[in-house]
C-alpha cells in the first residue's frame, strides 16, 4: 500500500497541483474562465484592523479586530506591516456589481481556481432565486471561501467552515468585504439603561449616550477589558469604547454567533472552525436547517487520504429533505472521486452531473446530490420487488426445462 501511495503521489505531481505554502505563488484568476466574476489583481498595503478606513469596506468601518493569520509576505498577509502584498478585487456581476476584496489567502491547500469558478457558475445560473430569497448556505472546506461570499452577495445567510488554522483567512476577507465577523452583544446594564461609552476621539466633548441592553456591535479593537466597537443593532452611539467585564468579573459584553443584517450589505457571513466530523457538523443545525451545501475541490486521496468519508458523513448530517449539495472537483490521477460518488450513492443520495468543463487540458466536474424523497424510495422498492419476482420466475422456468 505504501508503494502504491508513493507511486500515486508521483503520478499526481505530473498534473500540476499548486499548493499554498509560505512562498507559493497565487495563480492568476484569469487562468480559468468565470462568467459571473471580474478580477483586478494588484499590489496594495493590507492594513491592520485599527488602520482600515471606511472607504475600503464600501463606506463602512469594518475589519477583524486582530490578526487572524500570520503574515505571509507576498501571499497577501502583510496585515498592517506597511508592505505591499497581492490583493484581488472581485466584481460580482450577478449581484449588481457588488465588490469583494480578497486580502488574505489560506496557509495551505490547493491553489486552483477551476473547481471554484465552475461551482460559482452553476450556483449563480441555477440557484440564484433561492439565494436572493435568503437561503441558508454552508460551505465545507471553504479555503478562500469565494463561492460562499458570492452566495452572501446575492442575499443568502452563509456559514463558511474550514480547519481551525485555515478559517482565519476567509474571516478576514469577509470582514474586509463588509460582513461583520467579531460580533458582541450587550448582556449587562439592563437596570441601568445600558453601558457607559467612552469616546474614541480625544477631541470629543461631552458624554456619549449609553449603549442599550441587547444591542449588537462589531469589534474593531480589543485591548484587555476595553472594546472599541461599531454599533450594528440597538440604540447607542455609532462608535465608542466600552468595558467587557465589570469590576469583579461579571460579563457586560459577550461574543455572539448572531450576524445581523447591515444596511447596504446583502446577506450575512459567519465563519466557523470545523473539522469534518458528524457530531461537530450537527452543531451547525442549531441555527436551523440547511438549504444548500457547497464544497470545492476537497476530494484528492494522494493529498487528503480518505477524508472524503468524513466529508460524506457531514453531508448526511446536514442534509434535510430539500437540501441541495453542490460539489466540484478537478480530475486527477487516482484522486478517489469515483469511490466518493459510489459512497454517496450507497448512502442514499441521488447524484446529477451539473457541469463538465475542460480548460488547458484539465477537466472540472460539478455534481449536485440530494436525498431521495419518500416517493422515490417507494418507487425504487417496487422496482426492486418486481425484479426479484422476475428473477424467481426465470429460475422456475429454467428448472422446469431441466
Q: Quote the beta fraction.
A: 25-35%
Largest sheet: 7 strands, mixed
Shape estimate: elongated
Number of strands: 15
Integer average pLDDT: 84
If you compute it from the alpha carbons, what radius of gyration comes out, rounded to the nearest whole angstrom?
25 Å
What portion of residues is helical? 25-40%
Query: What is the structural class?
Result: alpha/beta
End-to-end distance: 48 Å
Discrete helix count: 10
What strand line-up does the widest sheet have?
11-5-4-12-13-15-14
| Uncertain runs | 4-18, 49-79
The topology string of helices and strands comes to: HEEEHHEHEHEEEEEEHEHHEHEEH
What's the SSE blueprint?
Blueprint: H1 2-14, E1 37-45, E2 84-92, E3 98-102, H2 114-126, H3 128-132, E4 136-140, H4 146-154, E5 157-162, H5 167-176, E6 183-186, E7 216-223, E8 226-233, E9 239-243, E10 253-255, E11 268-273, H6 278-282, E12 292-296, H7 301-304, H8 308-318, E13 324-330, H9 337-346, E14 349-359, E15 362-371, H10 374-401
Parallel strand pairs: 4-5, 4-12, 5-11, 12-13
Antiparallel strand pairs: 1-2, 2-3, 6-7, 6-10, 7-8, 8-9, 13-15, 14-15
Helix pairs in contact: 2-4
